[in-house]
């Protein structure tokens, strides 16, 4: 049975433009202001004996955004999450939550952070609704209607009365997300939330994530799945062996990998490259003799201008094709030469790496 998710969940915008949940059940601390840096790490480092799991990591996650924390297996994502939640003591560096250093008093984590770091434990013989009620009670109670609203938000209304043990993996994971929202956290941390789910289950989870940000929360999504991060996140940091190797908006990262392929007769490749290198918006031109193609570093929508410049010199392109690198291409490039475990993850889709080789960050 397909589960349908509510459209924009229960979001309303207050007079001050501050996004709040309908029937606001705001915790004592209230929601962060839009754009506020909810989580900051500075020089965050963790060593386990000889292994440096995380090294010098500076992160900043803001209210209203989904921040992607992307890296292959063993890159240090879960270790970082553990330090942010106060479960793992950093070797050095700092964590700041809601503008305050995370020190001996970890109560801010319980009050204002919701996290799924592994599939949460629920009572198998209780319904999804009763499981949430039990957790709500353990958390000191939540306002009336909260449980049902959260069940609706994660698309579980229809099955809310069914026993937890009869739920699919995807439903269990969605119940887990609902449970993290019971305390109306300003920061939600999801570590590999679609692990083990089939494509439909993954899609259901991914539909929920951006809504959490639209409600004004900051969302940190740790994942080794490129397309997950590409489709769900606003900004992304790519980590490898504990270090940040790339960061920026997903759009800007993808845009950086844009190029146009121009097919020309063999004899026209060199003169064609010469012509195109003279255009102001062309960053670089590589000649691929074997494919009889010029790879032109230029915005994807400027193909017609390339065509005009070539034709002006009596050179006629057989094909002009805009290409966009996916975040996956960038990720593959950045993790090139990594450990065997990492490479196994980066296994698929090696299509266009040659174009970008040599431009990788160290
Ligand atoms: N308690 C520990 N003791 C020793 N080494 C550890 C410990 N926890 C993590 N590590 C090591 O630290 C590194 C980072 O692990 P971490 O679990 O943070 O990676 P990850 O990015 O979450 O990977 P995955 O995508 O597989 O979840 C790995 O080399 C791991 O083996
Ligand atoms: Mg992990």
- Let me know the largest β-sheet: 6 strands, mixed
Briefly note the CATH topology name of the largest domain: Rossmann fold
Mean pLDDT score: 83
Q: Which radius of gyration do the C-alpha atoms yield?
A: 24 Å
The CATH class of the largest domain: Alpha Beta
InterPro entries: AAA+_ATPase, ABC_transporter-like_ATP-bd, ABC_transporter-like_CS, P-loop_NTPase
Biased composition (Polar residues): 1-13
Domain ABC transporter: 39-266
Organism: uncultured Thermomicrobiales bacterium
Q: What does this entry show, briefly?
A:
This protein has 362 residues and is an alpha/beta fold. It has 13 helices and 16 strands. The protein has helices at 77-84, 107-112, 128-138, 146-153, 169-180, 199-214, 226-232, 250-256, 269-277, 303-312, 327-334, 340-345, 353-356; strands at residues 11-13, 19-21, 37-48, 51-62, 66-70, 92-97, 100-101, 113-116, 187-191, 218-223, 235-240, 243-249, 259-263, 284-288, 293-297, 319-323.
General description of the model:
This protein is α/β, with parallel strands linked by helices and 362 residues long. The protein has two domains: 36-241, Rossmann fold; 254-334, Alpha-Beta Plaits. It is 31% helix and 25% strand. The chain is built from 13 helices and 16 strands. It has helices at 77-84, 107-112, 128-138, 146-153, 169-180, 199-214, 226-232, 250-256, 269-277, 303-312, 327-334, 340-345, 353-356; strands at 11-13, 19-21, 37-48, 51-62, 66-70, 92-97, 100-101, 113-116, 187-191, 218-223, 235-240, 243-249, 259-263, 284-288, 293-297, 319-323. Strands 8-9-10-5-11-12 form a six-stranded mixed sheet, with helices on both faces. The chain has a four-stranded antiparallel sheet with strand order 4-3-6-7, covered by helices on one side. The chain has a four-stranded antiparallel sheet with strand order 14-15-13-16, with helices on one face. Helix 5 (169-180) packs parallel to helix 6. The longest helix is centred in the middle third of the chain and has 16 residues, at 199-214. The radius of gyration is 24 Å and the shape is elongated. The chain starts with 10 loop residues before the first strand and ends in a 6-residue tail after the last helix. The relative contact order is 0.14. Residues 1-27 and 339-362 have low confidence and may be disordered. Magnesium ion (MG) binds next to helix 1.
